[in-house]
Structure formats: C-alpha cells, structure tokens
Amino acid sequence: PIPSNQSIMKNYILSFLLALAIIPAMAQKGLVRKGDFHYKLMAYPKAIPYYTKAIKKDSTLQEAIFKLADCYRLTNNRQQAEIWYAKAVKMPAVLPIHKFYYGQALMNSGKFAQAKKWMTDFVLDNKADGRGQAFVKAIDTYQSFFIDSSNYSMTKLDINSENADFGATLYQDGIVFASSRKTTEVIERKHSWTNQPFLDLYYSRGKENKFREPEQFASSLQTKLNDGPVAFNKKGDEIWITRNNIEGGKVKKSADKIVKLKIFKAKSNGENDWSKLEPFAYNSDSYSCAHPALSPDGQKLFFSSNMPGSKGGMDIFMCTKQGNGWSQPVNLGDTINTKGNEVFPVVMDDGTLYYSSDGLPGLGGLDIFFTRDNGLRYTVPVNVGYPLNTYDDDFS
Question: Could you tell me if 231 and 294 are in contact, meaning their C-beta atoms sit under 8 angstroms apart?
C-alpha cells in the first residue's frame, strides 16, 4: 500500500524529534571525549572546561562529574574539589574512593564533623584500605595536632613568587630551591598538569629570613621541562636532582604516554661548575623515582617512587652504598608507607627521617611526619603538628 501524506508527515516528525534528541547527546559525548583525552595526559586544567560544559548540558553524566572532581583535587583547587566531590558521592555509581576524597576535601576546609561521616562510610565500604581508619582517628584527635603550636613561629620569605616555590635546601651560604616563577624567555613553556611554567632551580644567598634576590642555579644542569627539587651531600660537592625523563636532550615517555620523573647525580668541578649528570641505576621509563635524600654519612639514599613493590601511590624507598653503586631499593614498609602517597624524604644529622604523607593521620592533604630507625625497624611516624602542618599540602 502507498503511505498516505499524513503517515509520511508523522514519520518525518518522529525522525526530526529523534534527531533533535540525538544531536545534543552526541555533542555531550564529544565534550566528554575531549575532556578524557586531556585527563589521560594529566593535562587537568585543559580537561576542566570540557567536563564543565558537558555537565552543564546533562547533570547526570557521572563519569564526567567524577573526573571533574579529580581534576580540581589534582590541581589543588580545594574549594571546587569539595563542591564536585559533594556531587560525586550522590551519584548511583559512586566508588568508595570518591567518599575518601570528599572526606579529605572537607578536612581541607576544617569541616571535621562532616568529614568523619564520609571517612566512616569509606571504612565500611573498603576495610582493607587503612587510610579511612587512620583519618577517622585523626578527626577524633585532631586537637592534639595543635598542642605544640606555640613552639614555632613562621615567617614567609620575600623571595617567594606568585607561583610554586618549594624544596629549599641549604647550600654554601644560602639555599637552592625549585620554582615555577615566570622568566624573561620569549617562549614560556608551561606544564600541562599545573598550567604554570616548568620548574627551574634557583639560588638565593642569605640566612634565617633575610635572602637576596634569587638567581638561576647551575644552568648546565637544567632542561626545558621540570628540574628540582635537589639534595646535596654533606660536603656540598655532589648534587642529586629530580627532573622529568630527559636523556641526551630527548624526552622519553612510558607506554601510557606519560613523562615520568627520574633521579640524576652530578659532581662539582669547582665554583658553579658541575659534571655531566649521571642517571640513578634504578630509574625507569615505566615508573617515577623522585625526591632523593642522602644520609649525613652518604651511606644511605632515600627517595620516593611508585616502582613495583609500592603499597599504593608513591612510597619511600632506601638504598645502601655498595662500592661505587647502590643496593637494590628496599621499601620502608607498612609503618612508613600507605596506600596514599609518601614523598619528599629529608634526613637530619641525627638520622631522623622526615617525609610527607596523605595516607597517615593528619590535618588534610600532605602532612609532614618524622620517624627514627631504632636498629630493628622504623618507629611509628609522628605528625609534627600545626603550624608546620596545615589543612593544605605541607612537604619538604
């Protein structure tokens, strides 16, 4: 039978309405795909606007909401992270880890009562991960972190920039530190993760809270990507440096297209002159090695890595000196490391090991802890408390 004009018109209208429904859905998927592309490359600032636009069109896009919350957390935008994890935990497909991150975001805002609820939920959902129990304990006893606050006074140095400045270490009659401050270069390269210039090393002469204008340190050791932080041996004639995976001027990526971190060493040839950088024996294109720290006698090397054998994120490892080389790295174990991140080890003259963790009981984000080697094992880490630790990240 020949279809009537009325039937043809009805089919046309249905097709038109179906197209109207499909086009926006395709547009939203396109936005999410673009966000995912940048997310996988850790270019979180570039992923944020795509996820935001997609969610504005459809507030039920759960994966986009989860990843947008992650983007804000990973770029240290605490306020927005709290807002989006609050939405994430209400989604049907919410994962236990989203509850943990929401609890952390609430702690970052000093909202401990609300944080306890979500940390407790995380414990119930994931009993095998000890971080939840640790943070519930921290929330119940957080006032203890403020007991010794009068023992310290804090002074912000006037050599800081508007960008990142961290990892200060004593060198000669001043400090060497890493900074993403703006430079005078015509072409300014930016790190896709932070949307700030790549880290360079700077030296500032001075002491206590009085320092001269920083100047670039050892330009021969620096690359076009991130350089720093650094550590020196006791004499100051050996430097250990964290930097992106560049060898022979060539950037190397892992199988998942990520440029990992590696550790390099150089010897001093005299005033501000260093030998060619030598790669650490246990570097890899597949995982990161970072934040080296030498014991005062130079016989132990501590560093942070997510190499095989890690508990979760980054862990603290240690090697011992063997002739001209180093022993196989040893994970410092469950007392020191968690399923979170343990980073930025620093070893004092008396052997005390300081490092930062976001998986041990603290005020929020990375907190600084110390532990001591008693000959058999490391002691239970102690949170150094406020004001050295805050609701934000504290390290190095």
Answer: yes
Which secondary structure element, helix H or strand E, spans residue 240, and what is its range?
A: strand 238-244
The helix (run of H) or strand (run of E) holding residue 289 is: strand 289-294
Round to whole Å and give the CA distance between 105 and 115. Answer: 8
What is the rounded CA–CA span in Å between residue 245 and residue 356?
A: 23
Alpha carbons within 13 A on the beta-carbon side of 109: 17
User: Peptide bond before 49: cis, by omega within 30 degrees of 0?
Assistant: no
Q: How confident is the model at residue 3 (pLDDT cuts 50, 70, 90)?
A: low
Strands (E), 85-190: 165-171, 174-179
What three-state secondary structure class fits 206?
strand
Rounded CA gap, 289 and 261, in Å?
Answer: 6
- State how far the Cα of 18 lies from the Cα of 21, in Å rounded to an integer: 5
Supply angle C-alpha 260, 266, 269, rounded to 5: 155
Q: Which residues pair with 171 in a beta bridge?
A: 174
**Paired residues of 319 in beta bridges:** 301
How does pLDDT run across 216-229, given as a tens digit for each residue? 999 889 888 889 99
